Structure formats: C-alpha cells, structure tokens
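TA notes, week 10

Several of you asked for a full example with nothing omitted. So below is the full record: structure tokens for the whole chain, then the designed sequence directly under it. When grading your own attempts, check the secondary structure regions first.
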C-alpha cells in the first residue's frame, strides 16, 4: 500500500487586522517553533522523517509571500529541499486581497475558499502560486492541495490548465470539499476528474463508529496504526495522512505539545519499521489507481479511547 505523509505548510498572523506587525513573530513560530527543547515546527518534522528514512509531501502555501516578500517563501522551501523532501503547492486564496500587487482584478474583498473564485481566477491563482514556489527553488510542481480542502469542478479544470495532474484536495469530513463532485462518488477512493488524479485524505471509522480523517493532530497513534493495517488488509492501494507545520506545537505557543510529538515520532518509527508493507513517498502518476471501492478502514475502540485520554491530557495546563 502506498502511504502519503502530507504536511500543509502555512503561516498565519492570528487575524487580518494587524498583519505587518504580527508577521515576524508568527513566521518564527510557524516555520521554526523555537523553544528551549528545540525547534518543533518544520525543523523537527523534517528531522523525524529523515531519522526514519521517510519521504513526505510538503504542500507549501506561497500566497502569504505576495504580502511579505518572496524571501520568506525561499526560506521555507529551502529548509524542506535541504532536507531532501518533496515540495508541492498548497493555496489559501484568503491572502489574495492582502497582496501588495493585485494577483487578480477582483481583489477588493476577502474570499476564503478557492471554490468562491471563478474558473479564470482559480487558474490564475494556481499559476501564480506554482510560479512563486518554482522561483523559490521547489523543483517542478506536480501536485496540489487546496486550502481548507475547498474545491469544486472548476478547481480540477484550473489544475489541468496548469499541468498539475495530481491532487489531494478532497476530504469528505469538510462540507466545502467538492460538494458538486459528490454525485455517485464517495470521496474515499482515488479517482480522476478532468484528467487530474485526486487522492482524497483517508477517513477511517473510529472505535465508536464515527468518521475521522487520518490527521496526526486529531488521532491517537494507535488509531493511525490500526487504520493503516485495516486499510492494507482491505486491499486499499493508497492511504493519505495529513499534518501541518504547527501540529507539534501547543496552540498559540512555540512550546512542543508532547502528546503530539510522541504520536508523530511513533508513527514515523512504525512506518520506518514496516517499509516492506507500506511504501511511503510522493504522489506519482497513479498507474495503478487501485480498487474502485474497498471497505472503510476501522480502528479498535481501545485505540479511540486512547485518543480521548490524550486529548484530555492536552487540555491540562
Ligand atoms: Zn492549509
């Protein structure tokens, strides 16, 4: 089974009112996450992957740099490329109206989701993001993930127009994730739209029967492990896990969240130990798309109960 360890890499300024004042400290936190224990944002993420010989996919958001300057994007791409990891395109178009030079003609007000933009606008914004990453030294951009998993049919047409034929934008736990493509599809299996192959984020059934996306910050290690084995036994060909540059940090702080750090370290060790079963790597032309429909991965109740305990621990001061 192919396993994709994907990371959405983005910088936020805790609101939109005081961007330029807030940005320098936010950039430090989101990119480095300096603490007395080490740098638990991007550097620790890259270190753990490389320690276990794993290749991740880093979907990097570039549009913030249309406000603050290309050198900041160069820094992020440089860190990831220096670690030998894969850089691809993530896009949060809510930066569009904050850019110093207009990226599209209609940028007077903020529109959050990519699906709120016309086909022409989506095509232009994707082209712009791709060009900014490649200028930062990303290497060829071939894959895409939309911000907040928001996408529609036009997104896939826009990707095709930009020769981006691999996508991982869909997550059926999010209502904005291609509702217009839902007819007849379950957004679970890999499928092709407009010549673009889309690898949805894997959603498993937790120990109490609820849908749960395979996200490092939102699952116990035991759940991710159970879901991987369950998917592999069911014959799934592709399993997509999600994380972010800031998931190992406590909310709003640069301090490590040890529960999530341990989870991610355990996940990396597990995948490193089982590389004969799980092939961890980049998205490629899905020559073997895999079975159209397999049963949803499930996890045991003790693994989900473990998450409840962990989430309670994380809320302790
Ligand atoms: Zn994002």
């Amino acid at each position: 089974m192919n396993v994709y360890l994907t990371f959405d890499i983005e910088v936020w300024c805790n609101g939109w009112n005081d961007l330029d004042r807030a940005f320098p400290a936010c950039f430090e936190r989101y990119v480095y996450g300096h603490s007395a224990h080490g740098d638990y944002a991007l550097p620790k993420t890259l270190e753990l992957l490389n320690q276990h010989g794993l290749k991740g996919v880093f979907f990097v958001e570039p549009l913030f740099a249309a406000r603050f300057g290309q050198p900041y994007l160069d820094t992020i791409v440089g860190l990831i490329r220096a670690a030998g990891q894969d850089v691809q395109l993530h896009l949060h178009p809510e930066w569009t109206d904050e850019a110093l030079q207009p990226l599209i003609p209609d940028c007077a007000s903020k529109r959050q989701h990519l699906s709120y933009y016309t086909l022409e606008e989506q095509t232009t914004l994707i082209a712009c993001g791709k060009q900014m990453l490649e200028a930062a030294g990303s290497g060829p951009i071939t894959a895409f993930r939309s911000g907040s998993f928001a996408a529609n049919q036009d997104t896939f047409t826009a990707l095709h127009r930009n020769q981006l034929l691999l996508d991982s934008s869909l997550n059926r736990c999010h209502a904005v994730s291609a509702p217009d493509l839902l007819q007849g599809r379950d957004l679970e299996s890999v499928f092709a739209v407009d010549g673009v192959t889309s690898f949805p984020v894997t959603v498993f059934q937790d120990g109490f029967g609820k849908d749960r996306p395979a996200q490092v910050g939102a699952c116990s290690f035991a759940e991710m492990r159970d879901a991987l084995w369950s998917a592999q036994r069911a014959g799934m060909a592709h399993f997509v896990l999600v994380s972010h540059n800031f998931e190992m940090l406590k909310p709003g702080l640069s301090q490590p969240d040890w529960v999530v750090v341990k989870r991610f370290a355990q996940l990396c060790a597990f995948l490193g130990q089982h590389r004969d079963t799980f092939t961890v790597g980049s998205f490629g032309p899905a020559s073997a798309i895999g079975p159209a429909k397999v049963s949803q991965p499930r996890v045991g109740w003790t693994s989900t109960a473990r998450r409840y305990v962990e989430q309670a621990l994380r809320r302790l001061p």
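The chain has one domain: 2-314. Use that as a sanity check on your answer.
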